[in-house]
Amino acid sequence: PAVADVLPRILVSYGQPAVSEASKTVRFLCDAVRPELYRLRLQETYRVLQGSFESQALLLGFEGDSAAEVEPSFSALLTAILDSLPAKFKSESVFHRKGVSQSGMELAAWCSLLANIPSASSASAARLDDVAPGLPDVPEAIWKLLAVECQDALAASGLGQEQGEVSGAAVARQIMDSFLKVRDVYNWRILDQESPLGIVALAVQTQWKRAIARDGELEDPLHEPPPIPSEDARCLKHLFEESGIELPTEVRI
C-alpha cells in the first residue's frame, strides 16, 4: 500500500521524466498485488486501488502510451478487488463493534472511489475511453453490498457530530453523492427502496428523523443524539430537495 500511496506524488512532482518508470511500477504493483489480495485488509486494499487509479489518471495527462500500457493490469486488479470485497467486508465485520465492517467515513471513501472510476457504461467514461476502453463496471451487487454497509454504519453513528469528528451528516452527504453519481448507469430510482440508492436514501432519512425527533420532554443531552451542524444539515437537505425529497424540519413523537 505504501508504494501505491507515493506513486501519484512522484508523477505530480517530477512529471514527464518520471512517466516511464512510474508506469512500469504501476503495472508491477497491480500484477504483484492481485494474487496476494487475500492478505490485505479493506483499508489496505482501498489504498492500493486508490493509488493505482490516481496514477493511471495522471498518466493520461502525459505524452505517449503509458496509460494504455497500464490499463490491462489495472483492469485485472480492479476486477479482482471487486470480486474480493464481499468476503473482506464479511470477515472484517466480525471484529468491529455492532457488526459494522467499516466506519461511515471509510465506507464513504470506498463509494467515492468506485463512483469516480470510469467504466464502459458510465457517463464519465469519455475521459478514459479513448485510451483505456474496457475497464470493468462495478457490479450492482457490490453497490448493494456498500448500501447495506452504509445503512448499518449510519445507524450506528447517526448524523450528529461528536467533538472533534466529522459529522454523520457530512459523511451521509458524501455517500449519497456517490450513489447519485452512478444512478443513471444502473437506472436506480431514489424512491425504490430495493435499489442501492433507495436503501441509502431511506437510511439517511431514518437517521435524520431520529436526530430531529422531539418528544416534548426535557432530556439530559447525554441521552440525546448529537446535534447535526447547521451547515451540514443545510447541505444534506439541499441534496435531497434536488432529488425531489423534502427532509422534515421537525418530528414530534
- List segments where confidence is low: pLDDT < 50 over at least 5 consecutive residues: 123-132
Q: For the largest sheet, list the strands in their spatial order.
A: 1-2
User: How many distinct beta strands?
Assistant: 2
SS strand fraction: under 5%
Structural class by sheet pairing and helices: mainly alpha
Q: Count the helices. How many?
A: 11
| Alpha carbon gyration radius | 20 Å
Distance between the termini: 49 Å
State the shape.
elongated
Tell me roughly what share of residues is in helical segments. Answer: 55-70%
Give me the strand/helix succession.
Answer: HHHHHHHHHHEHE
Largest sheet, in brief, is:
2 strands, parallel
Mean pLDDT: 86
Commentary on this structure:
With 253 residues, the protein is mainly alpha-helical. 62% of the residues lie in helices and 2% in strands. The chain is built from eleven helices and two strands; from the N terminus they run ααααααααααβαβ. It has helices spanning 2-14, 19-33, 42-59, 66-93, 104-116, 126-129, 140-157, 168-181, 183-186, 196-212, 230-242; strands at residues 213-214, 251-252. It has a two-stranded parallel sheet with strand order 1-2. Strand 1, helix 11 (230-242) and strand 2 (251-252) form a beta-alpha-beta unit. Helix 2 packs parallel to helix 4. The longest helix is centred in the first third of the chain and has 28 residues, at 66-93. The model is unreliable at 123-132 (pLDDT under 50).
